[in-house]
Design brief:
Layout lengths: L1 H33 L3 H8 L2 H6 L2 H14 L3 H12 L5 H18 L2 H14 L1 H15 L6 H11 L11 H17 L3 H14 L4 H13 L1
Length: about 220
């Protein structure tokens, strides 16, 4: 009986200790990066407790977050190239390709953005569809998706009732993409109408500054 109890206790420890160590390590890393304490962040990332509680992919993904937060462009590029060659699971590859897509599109780097869409397409064609739309609007500056983006907005919000706060950022992002397309067509009236809503839903985000700049340029 005592042997059984001891065995159970050991099993519980083997499960609980790694879980608690992982939870604490994640908490420390997130707190350090939020506080811009990067020296401690990288120290924690390279510590034994981190190696024991997190996979190599998870650690390198967090390192990528640090480089992006510090705007260390050369290190981000090196890190992404290294991670793109890691032996990781399919769902991790998909997440990495999508993350790289958003990084490169934010940098306005057309070729690398296109490369990431093709990689996403190779795993999940449905996920690549949204990326294609964003590539068309943000990189190629096309106005091919006005109706589709409007339909997506209408699906999330009727434009009259109080919006669910959890949908506000999604709607604001779509409104930004819609307003951009009207700006490409020089339909200033529709652009201003859409951007007026987007400014309410994207307040305090990088979209707000971009919208105000476009409105000023088109005035």
């Amino acid at each position: 009986m005592e042997y059984v109890i001891a065995t159970v206790l050991v099993a519980i420890c083997l499960i609980a200790v790694p879980y608690l160590l992982r939870k604490r390590t994640w908490k420390n890393l997130n707190q350090e990066i939020m506080e811009n304490d990067f020296e401690t962040f990288y120290y924690t990332l390279d510590s034994l407790k981190c190696q024991l509680s997190m996979s190599a992919y998870e650690r390198e993904n967090m390192r990528l977050s640090g480089y992006i937060a510090q705007d260390r462009k050369d290190d981000v590029e090196t890190q992404l190239n290294m991670m793109l060659n890691m032996r990781i699971k399919k769902h991790q590859k998909l997440a990495l390709y999508q993350r790289a897509f958003y990084y490169y599109i934010g940098q306005g780097r057309a070729k690398r953005t296109r490369d990431m869409i093709d990689l996403v397409q190779s795993i999940d064609p449905s996920a690549a569809t949204d990326l294609e739309i964003q590539y068309s609007i943000l990189i190629k500056k096309e106005a091919k998706y006005i109706d589709e983006i409007q339909e997506r907005i209408d699906h999330l919000w009727d434009g009259k009732s109080e919006m669910d706060p959890s949908r506000e950022m999604a709607v604001g992002t779509l409104e930004y993409l819609l307003g951009l397309q009207y700006s490409y067509k020089n339909d200033i009236e529709k652009m201003n109408e859409v951007f007026a809503q987007a400014l309410k839903h994207c307040a305090g985000t990088p979209y707000e500054e971009s919208i105000q700049k476009i409105i000023k340029e088109k005035a």
